[in-house]
TrEMBL record, chains A, B, C, D:
It is an enzyme of class 3 (hydrolase). Homotetramer. Its EC number is 3.5.1.2. GO terms for molecular function: glutaminase activity. This is Glutaminase. It comes from the Bacteria.
Length: 308, 308, 308, 308
């Protein structure tokens, strides 16, 4: 008999065949410790109900999924024009941390907000007298968007991010050198690294997906959390750039606006249908959760979720 | 009162404000002669009815819109695996005729079938003893997909394409040098240039859009022209790569799977809704029809067509 | 009648025809203030005599000419193998501050010690507990190599360098991210920026050229300041990489191992013949002193100095 | 006792320690057949006497050494300005057949005449009604420059070059697309491939080196074969770009204007001293003859030949 719960169970089962493949992110020592046998699949429907199978309470860090939260926060404070004066909207086909285009593109703007350079540029649009105050805005918003008032960042991972963040420092200084951004680079990176370190679980990211699926309106309580135009912007960027240099193949195989993070999470937002969260920290060479991709593929096929 | 015809009229009016801006493609002498005051908007619904405003009978060459026809033809003959052994599916953010990634990407495969290198690689998958026979497959299929049994290529434009096609020759020889393709380069390019030179009108490309919107089934007669899996492949690639290095912004502003050509046409396919054709030969610096983009934006907003 | 003094006078006259062309470096505010009417030409022969015409006592900062001093210092402390584990020896054809190759080259090492990234990597080879101690080694050595025990760095320029040094910070963090260098980036850059800010005059740089011309032996006093093998290394790198992306043309037109700086100086070392210094702060678009190039061309022709 | 013959014998002995390392060029099937145990060292002094050790009569194809002959021929017919309107003079640090810079450099000119793209551009400057007539100019000049009136090209190698020359075709079409060159690409490549296939021996290339060392005057007979200004141009380009992306290290370790070819030859020209030829078809990964490099290093040290 069809039920959402059964569907998720099947997606979990299908994904679990890939357990044992891939490896956790190794460039941040804290992430390398993750248990690659953990797997979870969650769906939050537009009535606000969350269904899960597997380790859906296991906490992990958002990593690049936080790029969506940073973008939503920046759009809220600086508006569309403010944000996109500093970052473009084009997919690149480059790895997430590439520096080449900052030099070769005539505008010097990073290509889009879903790669590291772009997310750092986005972060500089979030106002505040101190990095603490600025991250406060992100945290407060994240607590609403993920429906967890206790949400916080993981101090150990944050320290590890910061210690190994030289490439992000390079990206930030390149952008300041070409006047795409201004202000104190270490402060911007404090906010950015803390956002990457936000500790979440699979159910919470499925809720974020559901907010985006529901045109920005919380499926629990009905409050408008993101304005509809910004939702369209975010969903289109997730569709074209959300999975690094796998975005094109994900569009073809899954066809759902989504964002992955090297912490092992993938968050999907199916417009007017549902939010999806998956978690498994074993990554493929492009930095996407291997079992998460499998689960997404299953759900897209089984529930006919592809936009294309 | 709402009617499809009124909507198109409004889209036409909105687009016509941009008449006079932009310029026709100048790198192919024949194209530079186009009358930049010509403008047309057509919609074909899934019942096969076509509504038009403006110069919808004016003939122009498909140019890059033919990449969709070439891809459909190649998928039909060589299947998904056959085609995508020679070309990737990732957007690049590069101009349509860039050669850099053929050298820097480890696979040496062109990034996707919507840029020149990729479409040439796709062309090599179309079988036949002679270029004439091979182009015959393309032409026959194009006649069905655009519902015009008289469809043919424009000899003047073909000659002009061929004379000025050195960059495409360079792309082809680079790919043969790295064994991505094999066979006689001049023969592949004959097929490719003839496909680019297919002479169509705005109504016909809206019909092609409608076939893709209707999951491959002809809205006139009900014959399955493209198998559904191939339709999904084509629509996802149009969504992430269809407008060159403007694809990301088009997704954000319009959100319709579409393909533009430097001949001045844009073809859109709104899944389960309609096919759209626009025509005006004045291009923006990225090679997309300026008034066509305006018309697409209007229709997307007015009819709520964005997938995102 | 031939005399060295007359030759220099003619070189000065020939160069002075280009006074008024070019512009001072503008990316460092302090440098933009330079008086572009200042011009000097100096030659130090291998008996230690210095001949000058023009503003040869005018002080300016070494900028990239200090790359030679940094390399000599690093070779002295870390030896050939120590230094060239962190930097290559190939010319690049790229501008002096390009970051692309740090990403695309398989080794991630900067291409050579005559571009910014390479000189920063070289700087990390200079030992010391503090940046002060480390720069002390550079300063002490520079005083000997330029034969001025009072030599020091310009505090205003140093502050200006440091404030506008974001691109160099980006280069340094990129190299630390790929483990080409280690240690504290701000400390390395303090040493590097202070070296760039070393305040010299035209006669002094001609003396440095004479030391290099004389196989490392001071033409005043006869002390071996640089060991002969290191001199060969430095002179060959000056020949292939000393004038940024003008190095090939300089080899063809002048043919002298030389190093230019955006402060307006050019230092040349003609093996077994003489050292040459020129100074004029108006630069061509590639960052080389315009009148300096003219003077070098004249001297190369008149005295038959080209190695090629 | 010192004698030139003894020196060469020692150089041969030193080089022979590397026999067995490296591999012949494999991208041209004919070259892959070469016997990697063949080794020869020849010196031609400025009195026209040639001294040799080893397989100095063994014939091999010039390959990239012909770039020097092509450049000399083009300079003779089109002059400095004619040639360098189509090609630059800067080293690149890229492999010999790279296409990237043809796209990224603002001028679209190839970087220098010592890489494939540059040599093809140079070839287009050689006049004639037919490729046969044009290659005739090259052949006639090569016979004089290498002092062998019987010199001809190897038909087997030429056919092999032509069959596998797709990357060179790509380079040529790229340059014609950006209007750096004009004319029929297949005709230019016929001349270029035939020049690459010129069959020579080690003694003959040492004679070519001696002509260049002797400022263009034949050391046998005293005829001026290349005008002195052109000799300077050629020697400086050999110095900065003659050994592909090993040119910088060769300057440092050997310091002689030289040109290598993947046929296994290296030709050196020590100004006012001698010409050197080496031959061994086993190449290092950068395409230079491994034993040839060893022999050059030995001679440079033993005879103090480095310019730097």
């Amino acid at each position: 008999m069809f039920s959402m719960q059964n569907m998720i169970k099947e997606a979990y089962r299908y994904a679990s065949y890939s357990l044992g493949e891939g490896a956790p992110a190794d460039y941040i020592p804290e992430l390398a410790k993750a248990d690659t046998k953990r797997l979870a699949v969650s769906i939050t429907d537009l009535a606000g109900r969350t269904h899960s199978v597997g380790d859906s309470q296991e906490r992990f860090t958002m990593q690049s999924i936080s790029k969506v939260v940073l973008l939503a926060t920046a759009l809220r404070f600086a508006g569309f024009d403010g944000v996109f004066a500093r970052v473009g909207v084009e997919p690149t086909g480059d790895p997430f941390n590439s520096i080449i285009r900052l030099e070769t593109d005539s505008s010097n703007r990073p290509s889009n907000p879903m790669i590291n350079a772009g997310a750092i540029a986005v972060t500089t649009c979030i106002p505040g007298a101190t990095p603490g105050e600025r991250f406060g805005h992100v945290l407060e918003y994240a607590r609403a968007l993920l429906d967890n008032p206790e949400l916080d960042y993981d101090k150990e991972v944050y320290r590890s991010e910061s210690e190994t963040g030289d490439r992000n420092r390079a990206l930030a200084y390149m952008m300041r050198a070409s006047k795409v951004i201004d202000g104190a680079v270490p402060e911007h990176l404090e906010v950015y690294f803390k956002a990457c370190s936000l500790s979440v679980n699979c159910e919470e990211i499925s809720f974020l997906g559901a907010v985006l699926a529901n045109n920005g309106i919380s499926p629990r309580g009905g409050k408008m959390l993101i304005e509809p135009f910004h939702v369209k912007v975010i969903r289109s960027l997730m569709s074209t750039c959300g999975l690094y240099d796998y975005s094109g193949e994900f569009a073809l195989r899954v066809g759902i606006p989504a964002k992955s993070g090297v912490g092992g999470g993938i968050m999907g937002a199916v417009p007017s249908r549902m939010g999806i969260g998956t978690y498994c920290p074993a990554l493929d060479p492009k930095g996407n959760s291997l079992c998460g991709l499998r689960a997404m593929e299953y759900l897209s096929q089984a529930l006919n979720l592809s936009l294309f």
